Amino acid sequence: MSNKYLFLKSGFPRAPFGLGIGRYVCQLQRITLKFCKSHGTSRGMRGFIEHDLVNYAKENPGVVVYVKPRRHRHPVIVAEYLNGDRQWMEVANYSQEDVVKWMELLRTQFRNGPSLRLRKLWHTEFPSIQGPWTPFTFRNPMLNLAQFPNEELGAAIKLGPTATEQLVELFKAQQLADNATNDSTKVSQDVEQTSERI
C-alpha cells in the first residue's frame, strides 16, 4: 500500500461559498490545452481541437480556453479553478472521446478532487460541546443495572392517546351528556305530572 496520500493537502468536504445561492457559478475559470502538432501521443487532443473545441467554447462562455502547441511533448490539460486550485493532467495516447469526457469532468468539478486528503467524511462549523447524539444520550443511567428480560422496559412506549382513543372518549362524554339531559327532562316531566295531580 502506498503512503503518497499522506503528503496531500488535507481538509474537509465542503461546497464553494455561495454556490447554488441565487444562481450556478461555474468554478472552472481557465483551461489550457498543450499539445504537439506532429507527435503521435497528441492525436486525440488534436482531434478534440479540430472537431469539438469550438462547440465547447460556445457552450461554456465563462471558461477561458487557451491552446498552446509545443514540439515533441506529451499533451497536457491544465485546469484553473475559482478558488486558486490548478489541476494538471497528462492525456498522452487518449482518444478524442476520452478527451471530451475529461474536459467535461474538469468543467463540472470545483477543485482538484483527488488532491485533497479527507480528514473526516463529515464536518460542521458549529460542533457540539456535548459530543455527537446517540440513542442513549438522554437515557437514565440506572438502565445499566437492569436485569433483562424486563417487562417494564420491553413494553411499547405509549406517549399519549391515539386518535381512535380520543374519539371513543368524546363519544362516551357525549353519551353521558345526552343521558344527563334526558334524565333531567324526565325528572322535570315527573314533577309537572305530580303537581298537576295535586
What does this 3D model show about the protein?
Keywords: Mitochondrion, Ribonucleoprotein, Ribosomal protein. This is Large ribosomal subunit protein mL43. It contains five helices and six strands; from the N terminus they run ββααβββαβαα. The termini are far apart. The protein is of the alpha/beta class and 198 residues long. It has a domain at 27-118: Glutaredoxin (3-Layer(aba) Sandwich). A hairpin with a 4-residue loop joins strand 4 (76-81) and strand 5. Helix content is 34%, strand content 16%. Helix 1 packs across helix 3 (96-108).
Question: What is the element layout, followed by pairings?
Answer:
Blueprint: E1 9-11, E2 28-35, H1 43-51, H2 53-59, E3 64-69, E4 76-81, E5 86-90, H3 96-108, E6 116-118, H4 151-154, H5 163-197
Parallel strand pairs: 1-6, 2-3
Antiparallel strand pairs: 2-4, 4-5
InterPro entries: Ribosomal_mL43, Ribosomal_mL43/mS25/NADH_DH, Thioredoxin-like_sf
Organism: Temnothorax curvispinosus
Domain Ribosomal protein/NADH dehydrogenase: 37-110
Number of helices: 5
Beta-strand share of residues = 15-25%
**Main sheet, how many strands, which sense, barrel?**
4 strands, mixed
CATH topology of one domain: Glutaredoxin
- What is the name of the CATH architecture of one domain? 3-Layer(aba) Sandwich
Distance between the termini: 112 Å
**Alpha-beta content class:** alpha/beta
Count the beta strands. Answer: 6
